[in-house]
Amino acid sequence: MVSSRPRLWITRRLSANTEARAMRDYDVVLNPDDQVSSVDRIVEMSQQVDAILPCHSESFNAEVAARLGMRLKIIANHSVGVDHCDLEALARRGITVTNTPDVLSDATAEVTLLLLLGAARRAAQGDRLVRDGRWDSWSPSFMVGHQVTGKTLGIVGMGKVGRVVADRARGFDMAVHYHNRTRLDPGLERGAVYHDSLDSLLSAAQFVSLHCPASPESHEMMNARTFALLPDNAVLVNASRGALVDEDALLDALDSGKLAAAGLDCFRQEPGGNPEFSRRDNIFMLPHIGSATFETRDAMGFRALDNLDAFFSGRTPQDRLV
Ligand code: DGY
């Protein structure tokens, strides 16, 4: 029997609740082995389905967009970031694209604070020492780190995630400064100090946290020139995208002492990261898990399905980008 339900390919293994709801409402092709799909597989599947629900691990660049099948009508991303999609090229093909904003702000802010604390208080080094059985002495001069409480936090990109990070940081009595394309209303700013340029923010920030999308404008915004603007012994945190940071310049800034430490959940090369980083004790790293909580995975999956439901019932999806 031919199904009248839209055919949906879910490219990666999602939460059980998400997959159950998808199977209730769509004719679903799952990926139980959770394999990353090649470009040829994406192109092949696009000829067989009406919708794809991908993650940021699948690329829909201009070359892929040009090869997508005519049947495919919508790409409902399971991510807030859409730097893996060439929106203009997909729009030219008449393909609707959505994302999942809002629902991952709390989880990502949690990981941001974890990175900030872990970098400042040398968590990676301390964990390794105990774990490896090499913790053989203690003294007041042992593993001294940088206190977070009362310091100045510079947030680059005061969108939803940036604002939750600001709220959590206030719990540590941090003075919140920010740079954003536009200044926020006082109700959203909540006393944070606005800087109309990145340079101005960096010169004031003992801690810097990046919360802007990867784009041609933000590409390697942290580079040799901008690292030099920071006060000595600053701490950089990135739970956004690896493309925002020139990783060679980051290593130089750590080696010169301009930066005391870095906390990274995102890398230029993912999965995998940067092997040079593993040689530094003052980098605290996580494998791109900012949104990886049970609650948020359900919320992201449901938000992507909400967008599909709207699309296939003739309404505009709330998170339509093109
Ligand atoms: C996002 O939603 O952009 C996260 O990085 C996970 O993909």
| Order of H and E elements | EHEHEHEHEHHEHEHEHEHEHEHEH
Q: Number of helical runs?
A: 13
CATH H level of the largest domain: which superfamily? NAD(P)-binding Rossmann-like Domain
Biggest pleated sheet: 7 strands, parallel
User: What class, by secondary structure content?
Assistant: alpha/beta
Strand content: 5-15%
Bound molecules: (2R)-2,3-dihydroxypropanoic acid
CATH-defined fold name of the largest domain: Rossmann fold
The span between the termini is 34 Å
Number of domains: 2
Description:
By secondary structure, the chain is α/β, with parallel strands linked by helices. It has helices at 16-25, 39-46, 62-67, 87-92, 105-120, 123-131, 160-170, 186-189, 198-204, 224-229, 247-256, 275-278, 294-312; strands at residues 7-10, 27-29, 51-53, 74-76, 96-98, 152-156, 175-179, 193-195, 207-210, 234-238, 259-264, 283-285. The chain folds into two domains: 7-103 and 294-312, NAD(P)-binding Rossmann-like Domain (Rossmann fold, 3-Layer(aba) Sandwich); 105-285, 3-Layer(aba) Sandwich (Rossmann fold), CATH 3.40.50. It is built from 13 helices and twelve strands. The two termini are 34 Å apart. The structure holds (2R)-2,3-dihydroxypropanoic acid (DGY). (2R)-2,3-dihydroxypropanoic acid is lined by residues 55-56, 79-81, 104, 290-291.
Structure at a glance:
With 322 residues, the chain is α/β, with parallel strands linked by helices. Helix content is 36%, strand content 15%. It folds into 2 domains: 7-103 and 294-312, Rossmann fold; 105-285, NAD(P)-binding Rossmann-like Domain (Rossmann fold).
